[in-house]
DNA sequence: CTTGCCCCTGACGTCAACGTCAGGTTTTAA
DNA sequence: TTAAAACCTGACGTTGACGTCAGGGGCAAG
């Protein structure tokens, strides 16, 4: 399939697909005249790329990890890299969950202003100068 | 306290604090000579702002929501806004969890390439799956 | 007084993931 | 055959949350 159809199928722009290729995330065969031609599986790959982007990975990181995902082989370094990204995502999930709970508390307190609910931002930070770290 | 100390305490840059003020997220008293002066509570507020940023909220959204957090009152619109952000964060958490599970599967499969683990990116796509014969 | 550190206000620079436009070629529909 | 649609390669524009630099002021210590 050509780039327009892939864009339509995967829900990203043509420009984005060309950008992915530029970043080494997506390969394409070229026709005689230079037009890109993709196999069916490209749609899944684009979905995967989008998923990883939305998880906060950069193009460079994705480019480093995709080959080992493709081949399903990993060096110790790539395994460490994968595990590190997994842990980063875990931490991000935890932080988001705390934020969501805080938002819920705010919603509850603003719904009924008379209550003595805990204030948002007052989690349990006994010491000072602590970054957003593991609870 | 002055801006340098607040920056050191909250772990963000002086530039960021001035930016927050510019965006209407953080108020400061001014000394005679124009220097910013913050109360102790400002550190907590900066933490909150950082938390909301890291949850993917924009300056504008934060600026719209902070007053109702402060006053703990909400109009129907702001409640809806808060709930919408909460739901967005929930969805983001779910997507991240799926990505993390995918990453775990990749890690497992690359750790032991001989196993027949599911491939990443194949979540629930019941459409046709024409695999080239990968043993 | 002057040295050094902190502070001020602009204002331009950065970076990533694209959007968009220009100018030209290829493919497809009429 | 021809016109529209799709594609190509540059290359510049956009956005958000700052970084960084320039140029100048304020204040306690030596």
From TrEMBL, chains A, B:
PROSITE patterns attached here? Answer: HTH_MERR_1, HTH_MERR_2
Q: Which organism is it from?
A: Nonomuraea montanisoli
- Hydrolase found in the keyword field: no
Which Pfam families is this protein grouped with?
Answer: MerR_1
Q: Which UniProt keywords apply?
A: DNA-binding
Can you tell which superkingdom this protein's organism belongs to?
Bacteria
Name by which UniProt lists this protein: MerR family transcriptional regulator
**InterPro entries tied to this protein:** DNA-bd_dom_put_sf (IPR009061), MerR-type_HTH_dom (IPR000551), MerR_fam (IPR047057)
């Amino acid at each position: 399939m050509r780039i327009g159809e892939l864009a339509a199928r995967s829900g990203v722009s043509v420009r984005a697909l060309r950008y992915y290729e530029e970043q080494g995330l997506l390969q394409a065969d070229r026709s005689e005249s230079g037009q890109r031609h993709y196999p069916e599986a490209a749609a899944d790959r684009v979905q995967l790329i989008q998923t990883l982007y939305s998880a906060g990975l950069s193009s460079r990181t994705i480019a480093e990890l995709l080959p080992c995902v493709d081949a399903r082989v990993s060096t110790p370094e790539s395994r460490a890299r994968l595990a590190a990204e997994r842990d980063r995502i875990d931490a991000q999930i935890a932080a988001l969950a705390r934020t969501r709970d805080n938002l819920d508390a705010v919603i509850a307190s603003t719904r009924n202003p008379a209550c003595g609910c805990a204030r948002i931002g007052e989690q349990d930070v006994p010491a000072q100068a602590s970054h957003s770290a593991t609870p």
